[in-house]
């Protein structure tokens, strides 16, 4: 046995163990994760989110700039002037600047007929007609056929206006007589004859210009030659008052029609976008007094967009405000949300009757319920055109009226505002007069009588077939394609809703079918290949169960459903359309009339989906892509009676909750210029009570709160939204340069 060697011997031989403090490896030691106390700060700090990080950096930069400006001002005044410190600290102790100054925030509400804009600090907006006039070889009255459309070469009124429309008009007149008699109203049997005979023999009275105290001041186009580039176009009221016989000739351009960008009248996309930019630019300079574009960097902008919008339209407005106008920040708000802000409601069904579109949406807790949104393509402009058409049918003395002419359009709007009503108490044969003031012509005074035209025209809201809807879809998607998903280029990305889909399916049921049945299908029920919905909106509303579907187990059976074969999935319930007939919506049964239509129709339809299984047979239905479905939906004009559309919107918002149905029916708010027709809200309330007699005492239709003008409620709500101290929906120029239009996804308050 070898004895133990002493340490002295080891040290002498160089074998002593020493520790120099070096690790075995330079790789860091990673301690194991404690699963009982696991924590990470990924995406939990503000500096990890780009938008919040940029906001903090902007606040810091403003603090630095304010300090520099303060020091510079103190040096220039030699310390004699005491400067306020309000700019350095806000109410919450944080940085404050012109960003929170309402006078530095511009609120814009573009529409089909009017543009409303102003500063957030203003009590009311400035209203400008959404039109601009530029030099052109022809005027719009020379380029397009006359409105209302009629055949001037025919002699009889039925032939001029079309026999189909004439029958609808006569039926509406007879129905009104029956209704008035039921309401104990006095109806003269020869009322129509009195009107027609008087109007036929009426001759105008000529009034010289020096005897007309209300002569219209027409736009002097000679200022165009002397005004330079700033006066290259006329906008708003000036454009509408350019004489039709001016030299040189001018044409009116309307960038927005029917709630969409106007692709019908514009030859190119560049021309359309340029006119939209020019109109907004001139409005800022002439109406808001922002003459120098260098000052615009100090201003922010809030833009009001429709509830059902085109993403290309939103992105174009964002591009204009950030890149062209160089505003510091931009925010978006939907019309229904803005209306509730303006009226002070937390929950409401907002009915916005515009000039050329009527939108309906239910708002709860300040946010729009997605599946309740409906956009109908008729409005106050259709009432004006139909009112003139009905009076022309009854031998209106001014038979040459053409709404394409500027002075005739202004006259028609004046007549509608003065005489149209929805109160049966005001329906009688009455004698009226109007003055026709045309440029370079003496004033003509006409006497005329009218009877039921004043109520039948606005009643078109409840029977849209009386309107002229034949050209509203002309050249749709001709210049601007729909938006597609960034990750799936064949998947349409524009917002949809179950309520809007129900309206379209009521008109054309095939818009909900993603399969085309094979001509010789002999398989058993349930064998038809049905695909799983993907990348589409949530299922449309359905009150009843799915027991009536062809591929499901009968409701009386106690056996479980068999497992689906390959390629077969659960069918999607049909969209709910209030009051749909039994033949509508893929043959589904109609709602019960006893309870006002509460039950939803049964039946199934398929949304854009994945492909069938890989073994196609001759009996298998053909698959329709999401793009095909979107194309077909774009080819259907969404029109429906207003009361039916409101009930459809509310039922899709409530999703079977009867309590929420009662709450929404009790908080219906009508806004927009179309709602200014006298007795509009009470008439709508009567129609809704007839639809739901079981909830008569719950239904309430109100106008805007605080006796505010219905036309400006939406703008006023957006100005309130702009002044909120805590608002994370602002999009800055830096964010737009980094992310482009994708920043809208992260900023808006709703699901974009």
A few lines on this structure:
It contains 23 helices and 24 strands.
Structure description:
This protein is α+β, with helices and mostly antiparallel strands. 31% of the residues lie in helices and 13% in strands. The chain is elongated. Residues 539-559, 607-623 have a biased composition (Polar residues).
Please write out the topology.
Blueprint: H1 7-13, H2 50-77, E1 105-110, E2 114-119, E3 126-129, E4 132-135, H3 140-143, H4 157-161, H5 163-182, H6 191-200, E5 205-207, H7 223-226, E6 234-235, H8 236-240, E7 250-253, E8 256-257, E9 260-261, H9 269-286, E10 300-305, H10 311-324, E11 329-334, H11 335-343, E12 347-353, E13 358-364, E14 367-368, E15 374-376, H12 380-393, H13 406-419, E16 430-436, E17 443-450, H14 453-456, H15 498-507, E18 515-516, E19 572-573, H16 584-587, E20 604-605, E21 622-623, H17 626-634, H18 642-654, H19 658-665, E22 668-671, H20 680-691, E23 701-702, H21 713-722, E24 731-732, H22 733-739, H23 743-747
Parallel strand pairs: 1-10, 10-11, 12-22, 22-23
Antiparallel strand pairs: 1-2, 2-3, 4-6, 4-7, 5-17, 8-9, 11-24, 12-13, 13-14, 13-15, 16-17, 18-21, 19-20
Family: Belongs to the actin family.
Organism: Podospora pseudopauciseta
Protein name: Actin-like protein arp8
Total count of strands: 24
Assembly type of the chains comes to single chain
Q: How much helicity do the residues have?
A: 25-40%
Strand order of the largest sheet: 3-2-1-10-11-24
Low-confidence stretches: 84-98, 226-230, 520-572, 582-618
Biased composition (Basic and acidic residues): 1-20
InterPro entries: Actin (IPR004000), ATPase_NBD (IPR043129)
Region (Disordered): 1-30, 66-99, 516-623
Protein name: Actin-like protein arp8
